Amino acid sequence: MEEVLNSGKPLRRGWTTGSCAAAAARAAARLLFAGEETAEVRLRTPCGVLLTLPVEELGRRGDTAFCGVRKDAGDDPDVTHGLVIFAHLAVRERGGEGLRLTLAGGEGVGTVTLPGLEQPVGEAAINRVPRQMILEGVREEAERSGFAGAVSVSVRVPGGAEAAQKTFNPRLGIRGGISILGTTGIVEPMSEPAFIAGIRAELSVLAAAEERGVLLTPGNYGRDFLRGMEAVPDRLAVKCGNFLGDAIDLAVELGFRRLLLVGHLGKLIKLAGGMLNTHSRYGDCRLELMAAHAALRGAGQGVVRELMAAPTTVRGAEVLREAGLLEPVMASLAEKIQETVARRAGPGAETGAIAYLPGMGVVLSAGNAPEFLKDVCGKREEEP
C-alpha cells in the first residue's frame, strides 16, 4: 500500500493495532474450531481495504489456541510499530445455544480507570470498532465450522506497557498498556506536504463546481457526524486532519467566502487557545481551556479542579453539565474559537464552527454556523 507525495517519494500505509488483533483472532479461531493452520490472514477493513497480514506465531493446546500478528505502521512514526499483537482463544464450554463470546485485555493492553473514555471504567482499552472486528471474525470462523459453545477471547501485547509510556494513555487514565485502536483499520502515513496537497485537491474540485461554501472537518468522526445531519451534502465536507489553519488558508485562496469547521470538541477547543495545528505534539490545552472558561463563568475551585483532572473533553463536559455550566462555558469558548477562525480567514470571509460530543450532539455553535447550514445546506441547525 503506497501514498505518493507531490515530490514523487512513496510513503507506505500500515495497519492498526485493531486490524492486527482482528486478524490474530480469526487465525486462532480457525485453528481452534477447524484445526486449520494459516500463514496469512485476509481481512476486510472497515474502510473497505482488503489486507493480507502475515502470521508471526500460531499454536494450539487442547481447547486453547493463539496467534500473533505484528503491527506495521508503514512510514508513520507510531510507537506501537513492530509490536506483536496476540489473540488467545479458550473454549470454556462446548454445546448449548449458539456461540457465546467474551473479550478481555491481557498483558500490555491498558485498562480504563477514569470515566469519559469510549469504554467504561474497568474495561480493557479495546475500542468499539476493533471489538466488532475481533468478535465478528471469531463468529464467522465458528459458524463455518459449526462450533457452538462459550469461548473467551483475550488480547495480549508484549512490550505494550513500555510503549504506552510514550503515549497519552497515562494522562487519559489508561493504565498498564496500549489501546487497541482504529476506525478504518489502516494507518495513513503522516506526511504534511502530501496531506495538505490532498486538501487542496479536494477544495479545488469544489471550487470548480462553484459551490457556495465548504465544510472543513478534522477527521473520520467529524465526517460521520456530518453524515448523520439531515440535508448536509457529503460532497461539501473536506477532511483536513490537524491542519485547520492550512485548510482555512487554502479555502480562502481558492475563493471560498463561507467556511464552516465541524468536529469533535476535543479538536476544535484547541482553536480557543489559538492553536491552528491541533496535533498533540504541538500541545494539549483542552482541559486547561475548559477550566479557564469555566472560571470566567463563575465555576468554583472544586469544579475547576475536576476539569483539570478530567481525562477527556467528554468527561469535562459532563462535569460542566453537572455544575449547570455547560451552556455558558460553551458559549464563552465559541467566542474565542470564532475569533481565531475569523482572524485566520481574514476580512470578507464568513466563518463559523460547530463542535459536538458523542451522546450530547452539538454542544457549541459559533459564528455563521446557523446561516451556513440554512443557506448552503438547506437546513437550520438548532442552537445548542
SSE topology:
Layout: E1 2-4, E2 10-12, E3 14-15, H1 17-34, E4 40-44, E5 50-54, E6 57-61, E7 64-70, E8 84-94, E9 99-105, E10 108-109, E11 111-112, H2 128-145, E12 149-156, H3 160-164, H4 169-172, E13 174-175, E14 177-178, E15 186-187, H5 192-208, E16 214-217, H6 220-227, E17 237-239, H7 244-253, E18 258-264, H8 265-268, H9 286-296, H10 301-309, H11 313-322, H12 326-345, E19 350-357, E20 361-367, H13 369-375
Parallel strand pairs: 9-12, 10-14, 16-17, 16-18, 18-19
Antiparallel strand pairs: 1-2, 3-15, 4-5, 6-7, 7-8, 8-12, 11-13, 19-20
Helix pairs in contact: 1-2, 5-7, 9-10, 9-12, 10-11
Description:
The protein has 384 residues and is of the alpha/beta class. The protein folds into two domains: 2-187, CbiD-like; 192-375, no CATH class. Helices cover 37% and strands 25% of the residues. It has helices at residues 17-34, 128-145, 160-164, 169-172, 192-208, 220-227, 244-253, 265-268, 286-296, 301-309, 313-322, 326-345, 369-375; strands spanning 2-4, 10-12, 14-15, 40-44, 50-54, 57-61, 64-70, 84-94, 99-105, 108-109, 111-112, 149-156, 174-175, 177-178, 186-187, 214-217, 237-239, 258-264, 350-357, 361-367. Strand 16, helix 6 and strand 17 form a beta-alpha-beta unit. The longest helix is centred in the last third of the chain and has 20 residues, at 326-345. The protein is globular. Residues 4-8 and 379-384 have low confidence and may be disordered.
